[in-house]
Known about the structure:
Elements: H1 11-36, H2 42-48, H3 52-72, H4 75-80, H5 82-107, H6 113-139, H7 143-157, H8 159-173, H9 178-188, H10 191-204
The protein binds protoporphyrin IX containing FE.
Amino acid sequence: MQASAGAPASSTAKLAVVVLIGLAIPIALYAFAFQFLRIGDPTFHARFDTVPAMAAFHVLGGGFALLAGGFQFSRRLRTTAPAWHRWLGRCYLLVVLLGAIGGAVLATMAAGGLVARVGFFLLALIWLWSGAAAYLAIRSGNVAAHRRWMVRNYALTFAAVTLRIELGTLTHLFAVPFPEAYPVVAWLAWVPNLIVAEWFVLRRMPA
Ligand code: HEM
């Protein structure tokens, strides 16, 4: 990510993109293995098996969004292969749409009770909304607004990464039982991401 479309990308911005992609890849691979190899918590699979299409939309859509979205922030890709950027962007928004619809359905039955369910449901709505705003901005030719919405949207996609880091830290490092940790991370996985994204947008991508 960089300050403006014309300015050269700083080494910090390049490093940030590498770190984003480096964290996104293993979680995306986990999502694909969750779907096709059925790794992960069997109680999740039992819930997901009651809505298999929605679960597949969510897990595969989310996995692909994590992978594709990270590369979209690469300045080199945007400038050397703009057609590729456009096609990957369309695919990204399509899988965000599928992932968010599936996520909203899964949210209604998620572990962690009402607090977790509301947290996940709201995340799905804002994920969808920010994706729609990014799409409408680029369709109306407003590149600056499109970039700002995409930063916000990918910060939400990245909740899949922050959730797993936070859940692992709380349950393994601090021995917080899963039923107590899960409602916390259903919010903590995305609200701070959105705050960081907004800070970045205000500082580096002014309207
Ligand atoms: C950003 C919006 C997202 C929302 C609203 C969301 C919501 C949810 C919900 C409600 C569940 C089920 C929890 C339960 O049954 O207790 C779930 C599970 C899951 N989600 Fe997402 N999610 C999002 C993003 C992603 C992304 C980007 C990925 C890609 C890796 C992903 C991959 C998964 C996987 C693999 C599971 C299975 C449970 C696990 O093993 O952790 N999600 N998600």
